[in-house]
Amino acid sequence: MERALSILETLAAVQEIGVTELAKKLGMGKSSVYRLLATLAGQGYVEKNLQTERYRLTYKLFVVGSAAAERYGLKDLAAPVMERLSAETGETVNLGVLEKDRVVNIHKVEGSQLLRIHLELGRGVLAHATALGKVLLAGLDREELDRWLRTSRLIRLTPNTLTERRVLRQVLRQVAKHGYAIDNEECSVGLRCVAAPIRDRRGVVVAGVSISGPSQRLPAERLHRAALKVRAAAVEVSRRLGYAGPSDV
Questions:
Q1: Which of 25, 101, 108, 186 has the most CB atoms at less than 10 Å from its CB?
Q2: Residue 124: HSE in the Cβ half-sphere, 13 Å Cα cutoff
Q3: Is the dihedral of CA 190, 199, 120, 147 positive or negative?
Q4: For residue range 116-163, what is the model confidence (pLDDT) as tens digits?
């Protein structure tokens, strides 16, 4: 059990990893690591990427851990800040984490406006097409991002979806520089969003917070002003997680 937990903890810290690299990190034999991975895969907690021959966590581990996380972790720390952000902007506020090529929404606060955008909790949305996804991707280290770009399909959801890896990489550089990302009807026609990264005490991007609403209510000039509020909220949640770094990242 202890070795299996070590494997899960190591996989949680990376996007994907091969058997040889995992065995080296854990100081275990490759055959032992392979057997444990096969057991975890059989139980649905990990899966093998057939293109890269590397292993990664699955949604099942998120589902199993979500109740505890919601009760004791990030959701509770972020909820008051999200409620205040929603009250200030009138829009729906979402809290999301990166899961492979998707963003999983783990908490939301509905806006006060009559017309609202409904995103189901626990459902994944393609990361490259969302503001939340872009701030989470921008937070990956170079090696992880390179691997993500190589192995993920940039599916077009709307005419505005970014589907060229070179263009997406350039956008992610700007996101990292400015500390927020915008979704200009890239995920859904008629929907705009702005998101900012949440960092833990190590400075690692672990989640993102966003506001979303109909495009007519979030024109470009309002969206960029709202980004300042979203970024301030993200920094406040980061401080609650123990982050002590600068507030302009």
A1: 186
A2: 13
A3: positive
A4: 444 554 457 899 999 999 999 999 999 999 999 999 999 999 999 999
Q: How far apart are the C-alpha atoms of 207 and 132, rounded to whole Å?
A: 8
Residue range of the domain that includes 138:
66-240
Kind and range of the H or E element at 33?
A: helix 30-42
Are 97 and 198 part of one and the same domain?
Answer: yes
Read off the CATH number of the domain in which 146 is found: 3.30.450.40
pLDDT single digits (tens) 43-69: 888 888 877 888 887 766 655 555 445
Domain count, the chain: 2
In a domain, 163, yes or no: yes
- Which helix (H) or strand (E) segment holds residue 11: the answer is helix 2-12
Contact (Cβ atoms closer than 8 angstroms) between residue 212 and residue 220: no
Dist. CA 58–CA 77, nearest whole Å: 25
Q: What is the DSSP annotation of 106-143?
A: EEEE--SSSS-----TT-EEEGGGSHHHHHHHHTS-HH
Same domain as 160, residue 221: yes
